[in-house]
Specification:
The structure holds 3 protein chains of 3 kinds.
Chain A (H helix, E strand, L loop, with lengths): L2 H6 L12 H8 L7 H20 L4 H12 L10 E4 L6 E4 L6 H28 L7 H17 L6 H30 L3 H20 L26 E3 L7 E2 L1 H18 L1 H11 L1 H6 L4 H28 L4 H6 L2 H11 L4 H17 L12 H19 L3 H12 L3
Antiparallel strand pairs in A: 1-2, 3-4
Helix pairs in contact in A: 3-4, 3-16, 4-15, 5-9, 5-12, 5-14, 5-15, 6-7, 6-8, 6-12, 6-14, 7-8, 7-12, 9-10, 9-15, 10-12, 14-15, 14-16
Chain B lengths: L1 H5 L9 H18 L10 H19 L3 H23 L2 H7 L2 H27 L7 H19 L7 H26 L4 H24 L8 H4 L3 E3 L9 H5 L1 E3 H19 L1 H11 L1 H6 L4 H27 L11 H11 L4 H33 L2 H14 L16
Antiparallel strand pairs in B: 1-2
Helix pairs in contact in B: 2-3, 2-4, 3-4, 4-18, 5-17, 6-7, 6-12, 6-15, 6-16, 6-17, 7-8, 7-9, 7-15, 7-16, 8-9, 8-15, 12-13, 13-15, 16-17, 16-18, 17-18
Chain C lengths: L4 E12 L2 E12 L3 E5 L6 H8 L7 E6 L2 E3 L4 H6 L2 E4 L11 H6 L5 E2 L3 E2 L1 H15 L14 H14 L4 E5 L7 H16 L3 E6 L2 H7 L2 E6 L2 E7 L5 H9 L17 E11 L5 E11 L3 E5 L6 H8 L7 E6 L2 E2 L5 H6 L2 E4 L3 H5 L6 H5 L10 E2 L2 E2 L1 H14 L16 H14 L4 E5 L7 H16 L3 E6 L2 H7 L2 E6 L2 E6 L5 H8 L2 H8 L1
Parallel strand pairs in C: 3-10, 3-11, 6-9, 9-10, 15-22, 15-23, 18-21, 21-22
Antiparallel strand pairs in C: 1-2, 1-4, 4-5, 7-8, 11-12, 13-14, 13-16, 16-17, 19-20, 23-24
Helix pairs in contact in C: 14-15
C-alpha cells in the first residue's frame, strides 16, 4: 500500500460523518466482541436496580436471593440419585436431578416464560437486522393470542394435531398481518415504524379488551367474568414435564428453540437474510444491488410479527388456555423481547440466553414465586421494568466510545 | 391560456393538490352532515359525498400526488363509514355524544398534554435530537407532579400545585438529561436511548408509586389542591363560547401561551435561529462559533421540563390521581402530532386538537352506546394517529440532522 | 523584508492515527496578498487550514498574528482574530435564507431578544455592494446557484470582520466562467486590503491568481516561490515529485453494434425538477464514450435512469435490444448493465459486509451463488478469493469488512464485482475519485481492457483530463442537455466552453 493510499484509508469515524442510526443499530450488534459487553451491561443493570431497592429501605441482596430462589435455576445445583419419567410414557429412568422438587416446578415456570420471550426477542431482532425498530411486539403477541383463543375455542371436534397446528399457524399469521400493516406503511408511504407499531399496540390492547370484556363477542359463558372460555383439549400443546393443571412445561419451548435455529438459518444462510441485512446496513447500496428495499421492509416486518404472533399462540396453547381482559392489559412480553434482542445483540444464541435471563427474572419476581414478606411482587415487577430499561440504556453503548470520551476529558484541551 | 384561467383567485383549481385537499374536506363533510345540529338522517348523502371524496383522491393519486390522494381516499372511506353509522344511530344517541361545546372543551382538555409533549419534542428535534422518550417524560411529570403536590400539602397550603409543577419539571429534566448525555456525548442511537428512558420512567414511577401509595393509590383529596381552573365569569352567558372557554384549567391557558412563546422563540429570536441551525447543519453552526453540544443539551433538557408539565397537568389538573402507565401512549401521539405539524408550533397544535377531539369523542361515545362498544372506541385516537401518520405525514421532512450525533472535529 | 508577515504559522505538526498530516510546516501570509497553497489530494492542505481556523489543534508549533502569538482553540477564537474560511463543502443551511445564514451567531437584535431581520438584510446589502458580491438576502440557500452560495460564504466571513480569508478549493464546484467571476471578486477583495489563502490543486488557476505559491507534498512544505516566473511544469514537479504522466496506453477502438441506446430521455430529480432533458446518444460495443460536464448538470440522474434506479419521465433506454426504460435495478443488472457508482460508500459497498458478501451483492440471487433461496457460501467464498487476487486487492481477506480497506482497494472491489458480472454496458461514474496515482492507473487500464473486450463503456467524470485521455468519443452535458459531441483530440478549452453552455448559444444562432 502506498502512503497516499494510507492517507485515504477511511478513519474509523471520519470527522462529522457518523453512521446512520440503522447502521449503528445493525453494526454494533453483529460483531464478535459481543460477549463481554452484554455481561457488563447485565451486571451494571442489576447493581443499579439493587441501588433502587436499597434507597427504598430494603436489602437488595436478600431481595435478589429471594428472586433467584424463585427462578428454579438452583434446581441444577442439587444433583442426586433420582428417577424421572420418560416424557410421554410410563417408563422411568435414572436422572441426576429430582424432577418433582419445588425447584423443578419453578424451573418449569421460568422456561414457560422464556418461551414467548425468545420469540418476541427474535421478532425484534429480525426487524433490527433490517434496520427497523419494531416496538410493536406486544400488539403482535396480542393478535396471536386472540386468534389462538378464537380458533382454540371453536372447532371443538377437530383432530387434536390439526387443531393445535391451526391455532399456532393462525396466531403466527395474525402477528404477521398486524406487523405487516406497519411494514406496508413504512414501505409505501414511509410512515415511521416506531409510531405506527406503538399505535398498533394500543389498538390491539383495546380490541382485545373489547373482545374478551363483558359482553364482548369472545367472552366466555360466564356473563359477569371478562374471560374467554378455555380452548378445547385438542388445541392444547402436550405437557412433557410437570402437571398440565399446575402449568407444567409444554413442548412449546422446543418450538421456540427450533425458531432460534430457523432465525439463524434465514439470517445467515438464505438470500432473504442476505437482502434483509443489506437493507439494514445500507438501504441505498442494497437498492443499487437490485434489492427491493420496500419489499424487504414489508417482509422483515411481517416475519418479525409472525415470531411475536407465534409467541402469543404458544402461550395460549401451552399453558394459559384462556385469556381475559386483564391478561391483555397487563401483558408486557413484547417489550421484554426488546430488551432480550438488544442484550443478545440480535444473534440467535444471544437472544436465547438473554431470554432465559429475563424469563428467570420475571418468574422470580412474580407474585407466585416471590415471598411478599421479603419484597412486594408488584414492586418487583417494576424493578424488572427498571432493569430492562437499564439494560437497553447500557447495551447500546459503544464501550470504546466511552473510553475515548473519558480520555478526552482527562486531557485538558 | 387555460393555465392562466385556472389560476384565477391565486389558487390553481385544477392542481392535483387542490383537488386532493378538497377531497379530504368533502370526506370530513360527509361525516359532519350526519351529526347534530344538521343530523341528516339519510345515508345517501354521506355515501355520495364519500364517493366524491374517493374519486377526487383517485384522480389526485393518478396525478402523482400519492399522499394527498391517499388522504382523500381515506377521508372518503371514513366519511362513509362514520356518516352511515351516525345516520343509523338514534338521534337521541347522537345528541348525547355530540354536544359541540362540551366536546370542544373536552378536546382542549385532551389536547393539552399532547401539546406540551409535542412542543417539548419540537425543541428537542429542532436541535437535532430525536425524542421518542416524550412518553416517559410525560409519565415522569405525571407522577412527580402529583407526588410534589402531596408532599407540599403539609407545609405549603395553597402552593401545592406550584410545587408539584416544579418537582415535575425537575424530574422530567433529570430524565431528559440522561437522554441528552446518551444521545449527544455517548452518541448512542437516539431511538434506543429514548426507548430505554421510557422503560426507566415506567419502572421508576411504578416502583415509587407502589412503594409510597401502595394499596390505596394517591389520596382522594388531590382535587382540592390540584392545578386550578380559570373561571371566566363574564363569558358565562356567551353563546357556545362560554361553555367552551368559561372554565378551563390553568394549564390549558398556559399551553396557549407556550405555543405563542415557542413560535416567537424559534422563529423570531437569535436563539431560535441558532437552535434551528444546529438541527439542520451542526457543522455550519460550529464553524461560526455556536456550541452545538450546549444548544442540544439545553434543548433536550428543556424538552423534558415542558413534556413533564404536560404530564403534571394530566395527573394534577385533569384526573387528580396517578396510575401506573397512566399516559398510555400520549407521548407518542404527541410525537406524531409534531411530525404531522411539520415541526412548526401552530400546525402541530392543530394536529393535537385533532387527536384530542378523537379522544373526547371516544370518551363520550360510551354514554350512548354502552360500555362494551365504548371499550372499542378507546382505540379511536390510535387509529386516527396511524391514518394521519400514513396518509398525510408520510415522508414529512424534519430537521436535516435529526438523529445524527454530532462529532466535533 | 519590507513586508512583515500578517500571519505566520511556525513548525506546525499534526498527526492523525496512522498519518502524519502536517510535518513541521512553515507558512506566512502578507497583508493584501493572495498566497496559494498547492498540493495533491491528501497532501495536508485542508488539515493546515483547519488548524488555522481553530477546528484542529496542532500537536506542536505556533501561530503568530501581527508578530504576536495567538491561541486558536476554537473557530470562535479564529473569527475573533479576523480569520474567515470558505469551506470546500459549503457550511450553509439549505432551508434558511441568505441573510439568516450570514448573520448566524452574530445576529443584529431588536429590543435585546428579538432578531432584527431588517437590520440583517441591510447589512447584507451593504456588504454585497461594497465588495461586488451580488446576492438577494431573502432567497433561500437551496434555491440559489452554487456560485451564489459561494458568495454567501464569502459574505459570511466578511460580515464577521475577516481580514484573512481562507478559500478551500473554491473552484472545484464552479464552471470555468463562474471561476473567472470568483477571481474578479478575489482581486477586488485584495485591492481593499484583505489577505487571501487560496487552496487548490489546479496549476493554471494558481498561476493566474496567486502572488506567492507554497507547495505541500505528503504533509511537508516543498517550497514557497513567487508566482511570477513559475510554470505549470515546475509546479507540477514540486507537487507530485515527478513528471505527471496521465496518459493511457490504448490503441484505436473498433466499435461494434450499439449496446446502449438512449432516446429522448427526460428524468425528474428529487426536487421535482427536470434534471435530464431530451437526451439521446448511443454507446457501441468496444468504445468508451465519455460524458463531460460540471457537477450537478444531470449526470447522476442520467446514470440512475440507465441503471434502473430512477424511473424516467419520458424517452427510452435500450440495452442490447432490451427495453429497460422502466426496469428496476435488478432487471437492469440482469440485462447486463454494470455500474461503478460515483459514491462507493453510499452505494458501491455495504461497509460492514465482508468482501465476500460485497462481491456477491449482485449475484447472490442466482446459481451458483444460491439455490432455492439458500446461499452457497463456498461458491461465494471461492469467487471472492479469485477476484481479490485477480484485481490485486490488498489489505483484506474475504472475511474482512469492506470498511476496513483503503479507498483504492475498495474501488478495486467494486470494479472486480462489476467486471466479473460480465456486463454488456459498463457505466463508470467518477471511477477514480479520491484515488492515488497508482490506483488511478489501475482503474484506467481495466476500463480500456473492458473496451477491448467488446463492452460498451460509458464514462462519466468531472475530471476533463480523465475524459480526454480515456474516451473514444466525448459528449458534453450542460443543464441536463447533451450540448455537443467531440473527438478525443478536442482541447480542454473547447470542452470547457461547451460545459458552460457556450455551444447551445451557437446552435440557437444557427
Amino acid at each position: 500500500m502506498s502512503d497516499a493510499d494510507l492517507e485515504q484509508a477511511p478513519p474509523p469515524l471520519p470527522p462529522g460523518e457518523v453512521p446512520s442510526p440503522s447502521q449503528q443499530l445493525t453494526s454494533r450488534f453483529g460483531g464478535l466482541s459481543g460477549v463481554v459487553a452484554p455481561i457488563i451491561t447485565t451486571v451494571i443493570a442489576f447493581i443499579m436496580g439493587g441501588l433502587v431497592v436499597l434507597f427504598t429501605g430494603k436489602n437488595p441482596l436478600k431481595v435478589y436471593h429471594a428472586v433467584f430462589n424463585g427462578t428454579g435455576i438452583n434446581w441444577f445445583f442439587h444433583v442426586g440419585n433420582h428417577h424421572a419419567r420418560v416424557p410421554f410414557s410410563t417408563h422411568k429412568m435414572w436422572f441426576p436431578w429430582d424432577t418433582a422438587s419445588i425447584a423443578a416446578g419453578n424451573l418449569q415456570q421460568t422456561l414457560l416464560l422464556t418461551t414467548p420471550i425468545i420469540l418476541t426477542g427474535l421478532a425484534l431482532a429480525f426487524a433490527f437486522r433490517c434496520g427497523l425498530f419494531n416496538i410493536g411486539g406486544q400488539g403482535q403477541y396480542t393478535a396471536g393470542t386472540i386468534f389462538a383463543v378464537w380458533l382454540g375455542t371453536s372447532f371443538v371436534h377437530l383432530n387434536p394435531f390439526l387443531h393445535v397446528m391451526l391455532c399456532l399457524i393462525a396466531g403466527t399469521l395474525a402477528g404477521a398481518v398486524w406487523a405487516g400493516i406497519a411494514g406496508i406503511l413504512k414501505a409505501t408511504v414511509g410512515a415511521h415504524e416506531v409510531i405506527s407499531t406503538i399505535m398498533l399496540n394500543w389498538i390491539a390492547y383495546w380490541v382485545g379488551s373489547y373482545l374478551f370484556g363483558e359482553g364482548g363477542p369472545l367472552q366466555g359463558s360466564q356473563p359477569s367474568i371478562p374471560i374467554s372460555n378455555d380452548i378445547a383439549e385438542g388445541a392444547k400443546l402436550p405437557v412433557f414435564w410437570g402437571i398440565a393443571l399446575l402449568q407444567g412445561l409444554s413442548v412449546g419451548i422446543f418450538i421456540a428453540i427450533g425458531m432460534l435455529v430457523v432465525y439463524w438459518l434465514i439470517i445467515n444462510r438464505t438470500t432473504l437474510g442476505f437482502e434483509v441485512r443489506a437493507v439494514g446496513f445500507n438501504p441505498e447500496a442494497a437498492r443499487y444491488g437490485g434489492v427491493s428495499v420496500a419489499r424487504n421492509y414489508f417482509l422483515a416486518m411481517a416475519i418479525s410479527g409472525s415470531f411475536a404472533g407465534l409467541a402469543g399462540a404458544l402461550d395460549i396453547t401451552g399453558w394459559e388456555y384462556r385469556i381475559g381482559e386483564n391478561d391483555i392489559q397487563a401483558s408486557s412480553i413484547g417489550f421484554i423481547g426488546l430488551a432480550a434482542a438488544l442484550l443478545g445483540r440480535n444473534t440467535a444464541l444471544g437472544a436465547g440466553v438473554a431470554s432465559l435471563l429475563f424469563g428467570a427474572l420475571i418468574n422470580g419476581t412474580s407474585g407466585r414465586q416471590l415471598d411478599p414478606s421479603i419484597f412486594r411482587p408488584d414492586l418487583a415487577g417494576n424493578l424488572t421494568t427498571i432493569i430492562q430499561g437499564l439494560v437497553i440504556l447500557f447495551v447500546g453503548l459503544n464501550l470504546g466510545g466511552i473510553g475515548l470520551w473519558l480520555k478526552k476529558r482527562r486531557k485538558p484541551a | 391560456m387555460t393555465a392562466i384561467a385556472a389560476r384565477v383567485g391565486g389558487i390553481r383549481w385544477t392542481d392535483a393538490k387542490t383537488i386532493g385537499i378538497a377531497g379530504i374536506a368533502i370526506g370530513a363533510i360527509a361525516f359532519w352532515l350526519a351529526l347534530p345540529p344538521l343530523a341528516s338522517r339519510t345515508a345517501v348523502l354521506p355515501i355520495l359525498l364519500g364517493i366524491l371524496a374517493i374519486a377526487a383522491g383517485i384522480w389526485t393519486w393518478s396525478r402523482e400526488q400519492h399522499r394527498i390522494g391517499g388522504g382523500a381516499v381515506a377521508a372518503g372511506v371514513l366519511g362513509i363509514i362514520f356518516g352511515v353509522l351516525a345516520t343509523r344511530s338514534s338521534e337521541a344517541h347522537l345528541d348525547t355524544v355530540v354536544v359541540w361545546s362540551a366536546l370542544l372543551a373536552a378536546t382542549l382538555r385532551y389536547a393539552t398534554p399532547l401539546t406540551f409533549a409535542a412542543i417539548g419534542g419540537l425543541f428537542c428535534e429542532r436541535s437535532g435530537v430525536i425524542n421518542v422518550a416524550l412518553e416517559g417524560m410525560l409519565l415522569t411529570g405525571a407522577f412527580f407532579g402529583i407526588w410534589g403536590a402531596i408532599w407540599a400539602h403539609g407545609w405549603a397550603p395553597g402552593w401545592e400545585w406550584v410545587i408539584g409543577l416544579i418537582t415535575a419539571s425537575l424530574a422530567g429534566m433529570a430524565m431528559a438529561a440522561v437522554h441528552a448525555f446518551w444521545a449527544i456525548h455517548l452518541k448512542v442511537d437516539q431511538i434506543i436511548s429514548g426507548t430505554a428512558i421510557n422503560f426507566l420512567a415506567l419502572g421508576i414511577t411504578g416502583y415509587i408509586f407502589i412503594d409510597k401509595y401502595g394499596d390505596s393509590g394517591t389520596p382522594g383529596n388531590v382535587a382540592d389542591y390540584g392545578i386550578p381552573d380559570v373561571h371566566l365569569h363574564f363569558l358565562n352567558n356567551w353563546y357556545f363560547v362560554g361553555p367552551i372557554l368559561g372554565q378551563l384549567n390553568l394549564m390549558i391557558w398556559l399551553s396557549f401561551v407556550l405555543l405563542i412563546a415557542t413560535y416567537i422563540f424559534v422563529f423570531r429570536t437569535p436563539y431560535g435561529l441558532r437552535l434551528r441551525s444546529v438541527g439542520e447543519h451542526p457543522r455550519a453552526a460550529d464553524t461560526v462559533g455556536i456550541s452545538v453540544y450546549k444548544i442540544r443539551y439545553m434543548a433536550v433538557i428543556g424538552s423534558g421540563a415542558i413534556a413533564a408539565m404536560g404530564g403534571a397537568y394530566l395527573s394534577l389538573g385533569f384526573v387528580h390521581s396517578f396510575n401506573e402507565n397512566m399516559t398510555s401512549g400520549t407521548g407518542f401521539i404527541g410525537l406524531a402530532a409534531l411530525v404531522f405539524g411539520k415541526w412548526r408550533p401552530f400546525p402541530t397544535w392543530c394536529a393535537t386538537l385533532l387527536f384530542g377531539f378523537s379522544s373526547a369523542l371516544s370518551d363520550r361515545l360510551p354514554n350512548a352506546y354502552g360500555n362494551q362498544w365504548g371499550t372499542l372506541f378507546n382505540a379511536l385516537p390510535y387509529v386516527l394517529t396511524i391514518v394521519a401518520v400514513a396518509g398525510v405525514i408520510g415522508r414529512s421532512i424534519g430537521p436535516a440532522a435529526a438523529g445524527r450525533p454530532y462529532e466535533k472535529q | 523584508m519590507a513586508d512583515a508577515p500578517l500571519l505566520e504559522l511556525r513548525a506546525i505538526t499534526k498527526r492523525f492515527p496512522g498519518v502524519l498530516a502536517n510535518d513541521d510546516v512553515n507558512f506566512d501570509l502578507r497583508r493584501g496578498e493572495v498566497h496559494a497553497l498547492l498540493g495533491e489530494n491528501g497532501a495536508g492542505k485542508s488539515t493546515l487550514m483547519n488548524i488555522l481556523y481553530g477546528l484542529y489543534t496542532p500537536d506542536s508549533g505556533e501561530i503568530l498574528l501581527d508578530g504576536k502569538h495567538i491561541d486558536l482553540g476554537s473557530t470562535k477564537a479564529a473569527i475573533e482574530h479576523g480569520i474567515g474560511m470558505v469551506h470546500q463543502h459549503f457550511m450553509l443551511i439549505p432551508v434558511m435564507t441568505v441573510a439568516e445564514n450570514i448573520v448566524l451567531a452574530t445576529e443584529p437584535r431588536h429590543m435585546g431578544v428579538l432578531l432584527d431581520y431588517d437590520a440583517a438584510r441591510k447589512r447584507v446589502r451593504e456588504l454585497s455592494e461594497r465588495y461586488g458580491l451580488a446576492v438577494d438576502p431573502d432567497s433561500r440557500i437551496d434555491r440559489i446557484t452554487v456560485g451564489q452560495q459561494q458568495r454567501v460564504e464569502i459574505l459570511k466571513a466578511l460580515y464577521r470582520g475577516a481580514e484573512i480569508l481562507i478559500l478551500d478549493e473554491p473552484t472545484a464546484v464552479l464552471t470555468p466562467q463562474e471561476a473567472q467571476e470568483l477571481f474578479e471578486i478575489i482581486r477586488s477583495l485584495k485591492s481593499q486590503g484583505k489577505s487571501i489563502i487560496f487552496i487548490s490543486h489546479k496549476l493554471n488557476e494558481v498561476l493566474d491568481i496567486a502572488d506567492r505559491i507554497t507547495t505541500l507534498r505528503r504533509g511537508v512544505v516543498v517550497d514557497t516561490i513567487p508566482a511570477e516566473g513559475a510554470t505549470e511544469e515546475s509546479l507540477a514537479r514540486m507537487m507530485v515529485g515527478r513528471e505527471v504522466l496521465l496518459r493511457v496506453d490504448k490503441h484505436a477502438s473498433t466499435p461494434g453494434a450499439p449496446l446502449l441506446q438512449v432516446e429522448d430521455l427526460s428524468v425528474i430529480d428529487d426536487r421535482g425538477l427536470e434534471a435530464v432533458r431530451d437526451v439521446s446518444f448511443e454507446v457501441r460495443g468496444g468504445e468508451i464514450v465519455g460524458l463531460a460536464g460540471v457537477d450537478a448538470n444531470g449526470q447522476s440522474e442520467l446514470i440512475d435512469a440507465i441503471a434502473g434506479l430512477r424511473n424516467p419521465a419520458a424517452g427510452r433506454v435500450v440495452v442490447d435490444g432490451h427495453d429497460l426504460t422502466h426496469a428496476n435495478a435488478k432487471e437492469a443488472l440482469e440485462a447486463g448493465v454494470g455500474h461503478i457508482p460515483e459514491d462507493r460508500h453510499r452505494r458501491g459497498l455495504i461497509l460492514p459486509f465482508s468482501l465476500t458478501e460485497n462481491i456477491a451483492l449482485h449475484g447472490y440471487r442466482t446459481p451458483p451463488n444460491s439455490r432455492n433461496g439458500f446461499l452457497n457460501l463456498g461458491t461465494m467464498l471461492s469467487r471472492a478469493r479469485r477476484l481479490l487476487k485477480e484485481f490485486d486487492v490488498r489489505g483484506g481477506q474475504p472475511s474482512t469488512p469492506a470498511g476496513a480497506l483503503s479507498g483504492g482497494n475498495q474501488q478495486k472491489v467494486v470494479l472486480a464485482r462489476e467486471i466479473d458480472g460480465d456486463p454488456k454496458v459498463l457505466i463508470a461514474a467518477q471511477p477514480t475519485r479520491g484515488l492515488d496515482v497508482g490506483a488511478i492507473e489501475f482503474v484506467h487500464r481495466r476500463l480500456v481492457e473492458q473496451r477491448d473486450a467488446g463492452r460498451a463503456v460509458f464514462l462519466v467524470s468531472l475530471e476533463l483530463e480523465e475524459v480526454l485521455s480515456l474516451s473514444d468519443r466525448i459528449l458534453v452535458i450542460y443543464e441536463g442537455r447533451i450540448v455537443g459531441e467531440f473527438p478525443p483530440t478536442a482541447t480542454e478549452e473547447e470542452l470547457g466552453f461547451a460545459m458552460t453552455g457556450g455551444k447551445r448559444g451557437e446552435e440557437a444562432a444557427a
